[in-house]
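I am still learning, so can you show me any protein sequence you like together with the matching structure tokens, please?
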Amino acid sequence: EAVWPFHITLSRAPTIREMLFRRVLGSAVLICLVSVGSTSCLARRRAITRRNTGGKTAPTLLVADKDSLIAAVAREYNAVRNFSATVDMTPARGSVEKNQITEYKDVTGYILFRKPNDIRLIGLYPLVHTTAFDMTSNGIDFKLYLPSKNLFMVGKNELTKPSTTNTLENLRPQHFEDAMLVRPIDPGNATIMENLTDEDSAHYILHEIHVGANAQLFLRRTIWFNRLDLQIERQIILDDSGNILTDARYSDWKAWDNVPFPKHLDINRPKDDYGVVLDVVKMDINKGVADYKFVLEQPEGTTLKTLGQPATGAPQGHTE
């Protein structure tokens, strides 16, 4: 048996046609590489149309700096002195963290507000239009009437121990005010501006930071501005541990009596285990709200519950 001491590779010379093809292909690749602006060959240009813009043309993103955004928040807040609103409400119990949400559809609501902190909310059951809840606050104290439970609650706005059995008892008028009206940046807090722009969305975000004792930093709020129109799209309010107290989203801004206000608001209070979606049907801004409209008296025969004390069936104005 013969053993070859080396390996022989046989090859043939390229034909004239093959040499011409290689030259043409090499020239085409070179042209594509140097023509980076071309929409053919190896490079392809595509428009970033983003969501909610119809997908046809690339929108123009507006440019702003931190000071102008801070000024815009204050300007929109100061423009509202009072309002009376009729809204379609969708209250919900539960939260995303608990992986369970129960919605209650077609609730008609009335919201009255007057600066500095007077607010009243009335919710009516669908179809029968009887009162589901009625609550009012002066910024410090609140009152809540729940006819279905024959219960009248009074207490402070601050919610120290949320109810786990009946989340409707966690309702506070102040929560709605904080969500519906984006307050100006506290001048004692620091702010950081972030430009969060990608293919799906484009936002400026203001981070409001409180400097506490021992130079500890606490993120108080984030305010999101849509770069398509520089309107506020989202506000997140947090506690000192970084837990979300309020997550409010705003859309479909409209000028009501020459004052901009969102028609759609999605408000969530995950720690309190409830949320509500508001669709504004009618809005009167800066036309005045009478004093008596913020008065809520305990109906006769209802049970009075003062938070921090046991509920009683005592006559109006008395607790155990």
